[in-house]
Specification:
There is one protein chain. Helix content is about 25%, strand content about 25%. It contains seven helices and nine strands, in the order E-H-H-E-E-H-E-H-E-H-H-E-H-E-E-E. Strands 1, 2, 3, 4, 5, 6, 7, 8 and 9 form a nine-stranded mixed sheet that branches. A hairpin with an 8-residue loop joins strand 7 and strand 8. The longest helix is centred in the middle third of the chain and has 15 residues. The chain binds coenzyme A. Coenzyme A binds next to strand 4, helix 4 and helix 6. The site of coenzyme A has 19 residues, from strand 4, helix 4 and helix 6.
Length: about 270
């Protein structure tokens, strides 16, 4: 164990933090005035049902408080957020079995560990969001690299990421165990987001079929998706990585967001 949560990266003011395009890397600890802008930026791309994970809703505030130094933002010269990466440290034993069950478990462990004062040795990526106007310009890779560099500077063993594959929603009937192994003719992962992590040196570890859980009443799901669910059964929902199970008798809808564990060794 080499790191304590209070040792935070400081991005601003260094030459390396400024790039030729004028984008400037800062942390939320350095720019607390951007907390509302960051919230808007981070919430913007997600379909409504993704905003109803109780683990996120109970714990996100910790990222803006104890973990503000780990919230990275790439700012345009006029101060607008071009890209953001949310991450926070946790303890991990370095084994596949020791990885959290998924994204929810990772975030829960992180918060429990800071409460108990546990030493941490790993940086856990939680999310990267690139503003629409900057998509396809390579900023996502830069944010992964920025997290790796912050983790390395803090002495962490690895950056772990429970990656939400960006193209999985196009294949909601295929289990993540199979999807995660799909490759293109050139041998690179088929999914663009997994592919980027692998290009940056990440190793696909294992699938996380129940990474995040969203539950609601049938009426909740109808409101969240704009669909009608007249019968119990499995439904394909736009932008969901897997089907949503509707049980009309129990008046519940349940969805598990499917992700893939990727490990970036920082040693
Ligand atoms: C996923 C995301 C971060 C990628 O950002 P980006 O800066 O546009 O990505 P890059 O320019 O580095 O491109 C990386 C690769 O992803 C592809 N890509 C970019 N955006 C994509 C999208 N929305 N869907 C599918 N593929 C995408 C690019 O084509 C590229 O692949 P290639 O070089 O092999 O062709 C961005 O689309 C985003 O913010 N999406 C919404 C939030 C999200 O899904 N975040 C990831 C999970 S937390």
């Amino acid at each position: 164990m080499t790191e304590h949560p209070t040792a935070l990266p400081h991005a601003a003011g260094t030459r390396a933090a400024r790039d030729a395009g004028g984008l400037h890397l800062v942390t939320l600890a350095e720019r607390p005035d951007l907390v509302d802008a960051l919230d808007d930026h981070n919430g913007a791309p997600w379909p409504e049902f993704m905003l109803h994970d109780p683990v996120v809703n109970a714990n996100w505030h910790h990222l803006e408080e104890e973990f503000a130094g780990w919230q990275l933002m790439l700012l345009e010269p006029d101060g607008r957020i071009a890209a953001a990466a949310a991450c926070a440290p946790l303890a991990w034993d370095g084994t596949s079995g020791g990885l959290p069950d998924g994204w929810d478990d990772q975030f829960t462990r992180t918060v429990e560990q800071i409460r108990s004062g546990a030493a941490t040795d790993t940086l856990g990526a939680l999310q990267i969001v690139v503003a629409d106007r900057w998509r396809g310009a390579g900023l996502a890779g830069r944010m992964v690299a920025a997290m790796m560099s912050a983790g390395r500077a803090a002495g962490h063993r690895a950056l772990i990421a429970c990656v939400r594959p960006t193209d999985k929603h196009r294949y909601p009937l295929v289990p993540i165990e199979r999807y995660a192994r799909w490759t293109r003719a050139d041998g690179e992962p088929l999914d663009a987001w997994i592919r980027l992590h692998v290009r940056l040196g990440g190793r696909i570890d294992r699938p996380a079929p129940r990474s995040m859980t969203m539950r609601g009443t049938v009426a909740d799901w109808e409101r969240w998706t704009g669909l009608t669910f007249p019968e119990s059964g499995e439904y394909v929902v736009p932008f969901a990585t897997r089907t949503v199970s509707i049980d009309r008798e129990a008046d519940t809808g349940t969805y598990f967001d499917e992700n893939v564990w990727v490990v970036h060794d920082l040693s």
